[in-house]
Amino acid sequence: MNLSIPEPLTPPLHFSTVQDNLYRGAYPRDVNVPFLRTLQLRTIVSLTPEPISPESDPILYEFCESYNVQLVHFEVGLGGKGKKRAVPIGYQDVLQILDYIIHAKYAPLYLHCVNGGQITSLVVACLRKLQFWSSITIFNEFIDFTTNITVNDRSFVEGFSGDIHMDPQDKPSWLWAGFGHGVAASHPALRIIESSPKESSPESDDGIVAL
């Protein structure tokens, strides 16, 4: 009797679940593609110098084409090393990345940089700030995926602010789980702006949303 033994599934380096249907890690290699298939992804957000393309990575690109995975690329330099490493991403990019993360229509979503370390951790840290996590908890999670957290990293997260545009009918259930109604409007650093289609809110233009 011949038994068919399935090939082992290998997740990307530093792979982890951030929230339901939201994953993080390093750049997927060929060996990781069977694992990615099990996630039933809708979106891959790449924080890398170059986008995933037929020329740069034909196997990963073909996987995305075959399984209707949307590829989203933000041009980001390589993360630095040492105590004085720079922050190679800006606030406007993070705000745009969060727009994908906090809308359920893009999930399941895989977020990655080259090595799954500093750059991905900065984006997740800003997401945690949006979720009202304390600084201590945010930075404890940060160092789980990096060798250290620098003064520049801390300053970037602590200074993160801006407008978050959200369709309240499409937000994931985990975003502010456990918080009372209207908590988003009280965020000390981020302004949550309703950006629903006008037909779903015919009496007013975009404005502060109380979720």
From TrEMBL:
InterPro entries: Prot-tyrosine_phosphatase-like, Siw14-like
GO molecular function: phosphatase activity
PANTHER family xrefs: TYROSINE-PROTEIN PHOSPHATASE (PTHR31126), TYROSINE-PROTEIN PHOSPHATASE OCA6-RELATED (PTHR31126:SF14)
Protein name: Protein-tyrosine-phosphatase
